[in-house]
Amino acid sequence: MRTSLCSLTLIISSIVSLHADPIITLKDNDTWVMSGDSITAQRLHTNYIEAYYRTRYPQLHLHFRNSGIGGNKTADILGRFDYDVAAWKPTIVSVELGMNDVNAAPTPEGYVAGMKKLAEQIRALPAQPLLFSSSPVNDGSLTGQWTSDRCQRLDAFTEALKSMGKTEKIPVIDQYHALLDAWGKNRILVDATSLADRAAALKPDSGVPGLEKLKAFATAWADQPHGIPLLGDAVHVRIPGQYCMAAVILKGLGADGEVSSATIKPDGTVSDSSHCKITEESAKDGKIAFTRLDECQPWPLPVAAAPALKLMPEIADLSRWMLTIPALPAGKYSASMDGTVVATLSNEELAKGWNMSVLTEGPAATRATKALALIEQLQSPLNLNWRAASKSHDAAKLADAEKAIEDCEAQIQTAVQPVAIKFEITPAVAAAPAKP
Questions:
Q1: Going by fewer Cβ within 10 Å, which terminus of the chain is more open, N or C?
Q2: Do 57 and 163 fall into the same domain?
Q3: Last residue in a domain, options 217, 252, 287
Q4: Measuring CA to CA, which residue among 37, 11, 315, 64 is closest to residue 171?
């Protein structure tokens, strides 16, 4: 059940945190600084995490600041801590490092010591430290079957970080192990598909040895799963991979998966609702219509991130925006929001419960896209301008940057407020058969 609007409780999952049931509370006007290396500086999974909390708790005025710099290790963040972390006056600081630390040291001792020191400095602010392991290298490595030394050593670094977190009672989110096999198996499929495509494109007279076997492989592979390209490079995956990262971190933080739910009978009456208000309901000539006002919006799902749900279907559980209509006559139904058709579903799908969070079009998706665009503007360039002014101690530029950030956050606050949506569920009209 959702907590009160003035406070939000996150329980760090025991699966990914080795401290027993630590709790952090996000309060109105909390500031969360997300520090890290180039993976954080991409402003992708960090923006998605921010978008989750802003849309899920629109009554809270929350502040998120990205403090990622490419190539950073623990010593680098310690060196810039005062002007690029503490200067924000944060109440929560997450530290996401490891990808560069494994290249700098043969053993994890220095990395763990640095993360411990960072946690101590965060607590001294005072603020709540959250330590995130690095994501895995997307090179086809699987648990115990390593494609690269870097990915293998990240395994040991992550285990050492979790052990330190348990000893020091610091929440540690292990995204490395949660993603390793899912990404590794997927990468094998993606690489095999690429090989098959290239083999199919070879000309019969190309003179390539074993061409017939390559062609046979390409033909056989045509019916196999092709995998989901995570894009980017092995270290810096792009949007689909970064959405997976955000989901794993949110799950580790014990994020509330419920947006809202409603069950409508075929006669238009409401049999159940949670975190939403249904009005203007009606049923006539097979069409069910109603207006729905939710307490919050679903987690924004960019079109480019949608393939992540094919790789990790459980991501949808983090945003359950449900509509259930049981006992409809068998057949297909067209669902529209504010006059825009957004999906065609069977009576069985509607009876089971339709999670509308997976939609990438329609009024809810349009509002989510706007909110994400404003978050991107906040984190770059506005956040970057503030960081530059803080580093140079330029008071005038710092004041200007703060004003620009305040204005942008006011726009975000408006964008994440829920609005009423008019729903219509109607029997889908089958296309007339073509005349002979």
A1: C
A2: yes
A3: 252
A4: 11
pLDDT confidence of 11, banded at 50, 70, 90? very low
For 322-338, how does the pLDDT look when each residue is reduced to its tens digit (9 = 90+)? 999 999 999 999 999 99
2 in a structural domain: no
In contact, 309 and 300? CB cutoff 8 Å: no
3-state helix, strand, coil in the chain (%, to 5): 45, 20, 35
Residue 179 lies in a domain: yes
pLDDT bin (cut points 50, 70, 90) of residue 345 is very high
CA distance 104 to 262: 53
Give the pLDDT confidence score for residue 21 in this predicted structure: 42
Burial class (CB in 10 A: 0-12, 13-18, 19+), 237: buried
Residue 203 domain flag:
no
Angle between helices 109-123 and 149-168 (to 10 degrees): 40
Residues in the chain: 436
C-alpha distances in angstroms, 298 versus 336, 345, 364, 372, 383?
17, 20, 8, 12, 25
Q: Nearest to residue 290, comparing CAs of 321, 336, 333?
A: 336
With a cut of 50, say whether residue 3 has pLDDT above it.
no
370 and 408 in a single domain? The answer is yes
Residue 91 belongs to domain spanning: 7-186+227-252
Residue type at 17? S
List the structure tokens of 18: 């080795």
